[in-house]
């Protein structure tokens, strides 16, 4: 009997036959507090991130591959710089099957002591930088161990590490997995091996991933990493079918070593202040303020105690909660100097310009600015901006020649055994429909095998592709490169303070088109770098910077400095173009005018031509000034 046919109950609702329960409903049982307590247990941080791996940047196969490369590169660069070694990195990506890759990263750093290898690669939240207030790439001790954990749960393979600390010491090869219940490493294999490198580390992680080119790719990340780290030399070996890439170092000088500073009073919250007072070894509150915080002089410490109504001789370990709150409020009222800025090291205007000129050849205009350091919540930070406009940006496709029967177009080696129509779809942004249209413009039969293309046809194809890119550039948003402590940020662009600041700048003032509330449009690359002792990321994946008003305002000022220069350049170019157009109109009729004046005056044509040219130049200059 259906629900419609069932007889109605006293309340008008249909009655369920006796003995039958509603599907999916189970009566709740009463449970005692003791029974509920037995079901509770500690949660390992590894177990938490296994279930919430999206928080660390492993929410898709393509992003997982990029995040793994990113974490390995960050660790290698930090290790080399801390040891005072100019970094040389080898990044290799080998495709084992359709969705399985091996990521290998080798550096020439100081190597890792064998006893530390398992903890570094097999334990989350293990590191040395979390409590150090100075600029560094990694801080939480999560990155590379999380990458190994992702590889382990998607392929079942351990992390493979080869490391040597000195030429006279043997190299060790280890295979490590993470015990996620205990957040502890387990060493499967540890043996001495022959390795030609005198010192350094090689890490190999097999994982489930997806390699792609274009935006949010490993290719783009390494290109931006080379820009942000001009002292590094990077050799990149992508999967088969892509060009090997070398990024030579632009300087033989390592960045200055950032100094470690103490917390600034303005950046400490009440709970942290109370904990620091309880843990202090100082006998008096004024001594604790001077020794545990930066920029607190004896005079400032006495003033803080006076405003808080506390005795300067009070013991910090016996401060009550109410007194600590008074002390916290007093700190905010007393004028304290900004923290020292030797804890942050910018890239520098000269090196940013060199990096832009290398990555974006023949741009028509460059502008670079580094602002003085500023402070948010007691943390020093510094903003740098680099800008490149026009030139190569109107056609970003790589040029090459026919190699091994295939053509290099758009940075991709088109498969010589495939029809050119299908081969073109390997280029980022080229759909099959667009490929057919482009081939029609180039006059190439869509059924032609790529390996049968002549050099002339390859040239025609590149010209058509370049024209396509140029036509799209005028209405395409600029390329915004976001960097934090020399690390590129690839995802969550719209949630980042850098994106918000760039959108809030009025680009029309600088003669660049901009939709309301969006990024400007045109052939422009904008690089924004923030260096800080503590970058306020919005999540553990470290892809977006929080919207602190101090940071946004400082980015806007730096961007506007470059924007004003760009606006002046575009104004000059516009005037010169108008001047050239006026001069071309004069040249169009100059011959007839010379002939007419020659007939009227009898003067020589060459003399008349010289006089008219001089007059035209003078008129154009006067018009330009007006």
If you had to describe this structure to a student in words, what would you say it looks like?
With about 625 residues, this protein is an alpha+beta fold. Among the domains are: about 50-245, Heat Shock Protein 90 (2-Layer Sandwich), CATH 3.30.565; about 265-335, Helicase, Ruva Protein, domain 3 (Orthogonal Bundle); about 395-475, Orthogonal Bundle (Helicase, Ruva Protein, domain 3); about 570-625, no CATH class. Helix content is about 40%, strand content about 15%. It contains 17 helices and 17 strands. It has helices at about 35-40, 45-50, 60-80, 115-120, 145-155, 220-230, 270-280, 285-290, 300-310, 320-335, 350-360, 420-425, 430-440, 455-475, 495-505, 550-600, 605-625; strands at about 90-95, 100-105, 160-165, 170-180, 185-195, 200-210, 235, 245, 365-370, 375, 380-390, 400-405, 405-410, 410-415, 480-485, 485-490, 525-530. The strands form three sheets. Strands 5-4-3-6-2-1-7-8 form an eight-stranded mixed beta sheet. A hairpin with a 2-residue loop joins strand 1 (about 90-95) and strand 2. Helix 6 (about 220-230) packs antiparallel against helix 11 (about 350-360) and helix 9 crosses helix 10 (about 320-335). It is globular. The N and C termini lie far apart (about 95 Å). Residues about 125-130, about 395-405 and about 620-625 have low confidence and may be disordered.
SS-based structural class? alpha+beta
Give the CA-based shape: globular
Q: Tell me the strand percentage band.
A: 15-25%
Give the CATH superfamily of the domain at 49-247: Histidine kinase-like ATPase, C-terminal domain
Residue share in helix: 25-40%
Largest sheet entry:
8 strands, mixed
């Amino acid at each position: 009997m259906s629900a419609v046919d069932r007889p109605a109950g006293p309340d008008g609702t249909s009655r369920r036959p006796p003995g039958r329960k509603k599907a999916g409903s189970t009566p709740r049982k009463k449970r005692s507090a003791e029974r509920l307590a037995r079901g509770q247990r500690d949660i390992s941080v590894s177990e938490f991130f296994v279930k919430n791996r999206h928080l660390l940047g492993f929410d898709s196969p393509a992003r997982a591959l990029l995040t793994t490369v990113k974490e390995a590169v960050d660790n290698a660069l930090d290790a080399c710089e801390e040891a005072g070694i100019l970094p040389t990195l080898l990044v290799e990506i080998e495709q084992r099957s359709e969705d399985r890759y091996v990521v290998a990263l080798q550096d020439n750093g100081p190597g890792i002591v064998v006893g530390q290898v398992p903890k570094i690669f097999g334990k989350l939240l293990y590191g040395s930088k979390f409590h150090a207030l100075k600029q560094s790439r990694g801080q939480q001790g999560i990155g590379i161990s999380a990458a190994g954990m992702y590889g382990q749960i998607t392929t079942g393979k351990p992390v493979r590490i080869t490391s040597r600390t000195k030429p006279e010491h043997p190299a060790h090869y280890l295979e490590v997995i993470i015990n996620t219940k205990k957040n502890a490493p387990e060493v499967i294999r540890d043996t001495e091996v022959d390795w030609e490198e005198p010192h350094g580390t090689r890490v190999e992680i097999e994982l489930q991933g997806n390699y792609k080119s274009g935006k949010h790719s490993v290719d783009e990340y390494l290109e931006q990493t080379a820009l942000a780290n001009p002292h590094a030399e990077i050799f990149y070996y992508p999967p088969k079918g892509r060009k090997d890439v070398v990024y030579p170092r632009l300087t033989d000088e390592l960045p200055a070593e950032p100094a470690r500073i103490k917390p600034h009073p303005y950046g400490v919250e009440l709970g942290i202040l109370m904990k620091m007072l309880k843990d202090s070894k100082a006998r008096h509150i004024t001594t604790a303020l001077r020794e545990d915080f930066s920029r607190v002089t004896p005079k400032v410490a006495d003033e803080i105690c006076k405003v808080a109504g506390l005795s300067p001789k009070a013991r910090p370990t016996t401060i009550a909660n109410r007194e600590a709150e008074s002390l916290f409020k007093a700190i905010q009222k007393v004028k304290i100097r900004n923290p020292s800025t030797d804890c942050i090291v910018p890239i520098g205007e000269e090196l940013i310009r060199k990096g832009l000129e290398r990555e974006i050849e023949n741009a028509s205009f460059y502008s670079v600015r580094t602002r003085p350091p500023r402070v948010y919540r007691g943390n020093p930070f510094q903003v740098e901006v680099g800008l490149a406009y026009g030139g190569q940006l109107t056609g970003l496709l790589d040029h090459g020649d026919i190699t091994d029967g295939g053509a290099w177009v758009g940075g991709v080696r088109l498969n010589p055994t495939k029809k050119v129509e299908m081969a073109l779809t390997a280029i980022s942004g080229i759909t099959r429909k667009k490929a057919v249209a482009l081939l029609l413009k180039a006059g190439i039969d869509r059924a032609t095998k790529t390996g049968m293309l002549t050099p002339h046809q390859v040239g025609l194809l590149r010209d058509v592709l370049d024209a396509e890119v140029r036509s799209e550039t005028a209405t395409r948003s600029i390329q915004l490169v976001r960097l934090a402590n020399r690390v590129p940020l690839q995802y969550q662009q719209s949630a980042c303070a850098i994106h918000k600041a760039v959108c809030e700048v009025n680009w029309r003032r600088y003669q660049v088109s901009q939709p309301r509330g969006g990024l400007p449009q045109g052939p422009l690359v904008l690089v924004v770098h923030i260096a800080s002792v503590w970058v306020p990321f919005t999540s553990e994946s470290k892809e977006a910077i929080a919207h602190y008003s101090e940071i946004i305002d400082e980015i806007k000022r730096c961007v506007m400095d470059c924007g004003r220069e760009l606006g002046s350049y575009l104004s000059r170019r516009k005037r010169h173009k108008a001047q050239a157009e006026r001069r071309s109109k004069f040249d169009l009729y100059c011959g007839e005018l010379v002939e007419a004046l020659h007939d009227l005056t009898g003067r020589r044509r060459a003399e008349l031509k010289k006089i008219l040219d001089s007059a035209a130049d003078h008129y154009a200059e006067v018009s330009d000034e007006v």
